[in-house]
Queue: 2 jobs
Job 1
Amino acid sequence: MKFLVDSMLGKLARFLRIFGFDTIYANDLTEYFEIDPVPDEKLIDYANKNERIIITKDYPLYKNYKDKSIFLIGEGIYNYLHQLNKEFGLNFKFNIKNARCSICNSPLNRVMSKSSIKDLVLKDTYNNYNEFYQCTNRQCKKIYWKGSHIEDIEKRLDKT
Ligand SMILES: [Zn+2]
């Protein structure tokens, strides 16, 4: 299941990527379409061609693509994840091997030699963790590890 998330839901887009869902953020398409903001018709056309479900808080956008979109109600990231779980049965269990880059949506690769990323993370992080992953996008190359931040997210999700 692949998603296109509207411009009001940037944080949700980052969460979905971290949980391994292929997610395009509408604001990341402004360069592709050379227009900002990207008009609804273009978003719908893009979602349709690329078989993406639109996640939106914009009722007119939802209405024009009803069969393949979800209209989120209320506020708050955990509330949104709960609605996605109810609608699509999505399971938000973090597995770093399946995670995608929260910045650019590219898959991650395991870093084989820890020393190769020594200069790219803080010293404490380097010393406290042994398993690192890196974004496969050459322009991004962001480093990931399973730190306390992810554990906090998991705990909160368990309660919702
Ligand atoms: Zn990236």
Job 2
Amino acid sequence: MLVLAGEFRGALRTLFFPSHCAHCGVATYDDRDFCDTCIQVIERVRAPACDICSQPYQGEIERFECPNCADERFSFEFAVCVVRSRGPVRELLHRLKYGREIWIARVLAELMREGLADPRLAGRDFDALVPVPLHALRLREREFNQATMLAGHLSKITRIPVANALKRVRFTGTQTRLDRRHRMQNLRNAFAPHKNADVKDKSLLLVDDVLTTGSTLDACASVLLEHGAASVCALTVARG
Ligand SMILES: [Zn+2]
Ligand SMILES: [Zn+2]
């Protein structure tokens, strides 16, 4: 009887307070974050994709390393990216970062949860989630760091603690016009360990919203490894 009453209350709640699609806003009635239409246009990163940087690949090969990763080694072991940064996800990332719709971080962290089941991550133990930091100037302008918010939600899901182990010490400005080598040069020395950050012998999972070229995650991972981290992998919502 109690169970039935609970179910009834649940049904009433969804009838009168339906959940809404995070992208288009239509009622979903069943606590899902996306409606049927939007979920279908969200492009998952699926095999075949690069084992290191998750760059999707056109072809039949199941496992491979893209030319970028074959050319120059990243400092992180690999980066798992869950979806392509296109359509609804691209728009949600934009609304989170520039529209200050911070509730979107939870929705995106739910997508990241899928990334935890990726064979590269499944079965691995991490001591801490490390969000990619923003420079203090940008943090002041935006008032929050989306990577920290994603890591916070992911921490609730995984019970892995968040370690704000890094800080951004150089303002690198927008990097979109630079090629890969110049981005990497520009980012060298942009990050430093936080005072009191204890990363020695720790297995760390870097968390960010998007991987575009991988240079930011690379720079972060190299600082963590230089300061004694045992291993550094990465997880992002999207692959640019
Ligand atoms: Zn929708
Ligand atoms: Zn790659």
